Amino acid sequence: MISIREQSYGLNVALYNEFTLEDFQEFEAAALKCVEKVHRPDMLLDLSMLKDFTIDMAVEQLKFMSKHEDDFGRIAIVVDDVWIKLASRLSDLITQQHPKYFDDAAEAQAWLLGSGSEE
């Protein structure tokens, strides 16, 4: 399940339980729409409630990121599950994206809004 909210800096995306191909397609449409409105939008991806993801979704995510990696600005990822964190970091190695990882969504959003002390 996916929840997507537009923000002044771009998008807040929260994933719950299993991240499926259908969820990814919803995310992809929202992300591309956001790119039309905001130049290099930032994104908060809250994976703290994610339990699993499908392989077909992972393949599509890698294709999307390699095709659109220059379209997005900063990416904040909230994650606490060790396996989900490992999968996220592995996908970072395949693309040129360098997201910042957080344990808390409020801290991640503060960073995107510019009030975080670290870049």
Give a nutshell description of this structure:
The chain is 44% helix and 29% strand. The protein contains four helices and five strands, in the order ββαβαβαβα.
What does this protein structure show overall?
This is STAS/SEC14 domain-containing protein. With 119 residues, this protein is an alpha/beta fold. Helix content is 44%, strand content 29%. It has four helices and five strands, in the order ββαβαβαβα. It is globular and about 30 Å long.
- Secondary structure category: alpha/beta
The count of strands amounts to 5
Secondary-structure element order, N to C: EEHEHEHEH
* Main sheet record: 5 strands, mixed
Give the amount of beta strand, in percent.
25-35%
Distance between the termini: 30 Å
Q: Give the overall shape, derived from the CA principal axes.
A: globular
Q: What is the count of DSSP helices, taking H or I runs of 4+ residues?
A: 4
Radius of gyration: 13 Å
Instruction: Give the strand order, joined by hyphens, for the main sheet.
Output: 1-2-3-4-5
- Indicate the low-confidence ranges by residue numbers: none
Instruction: Give the fraction of residues assigned to helices.
Output: 40-55%
Average of the residue pLDDT scores: 84
InterPro entries: SpoIIAA-like (IPR021866), SpoIIAA-like_sf (IPR038396), STAS_dom_sf (IPR036513)
Organism: Uruburuella suis
Protein name: STAS/SEC14 domain-containing protein
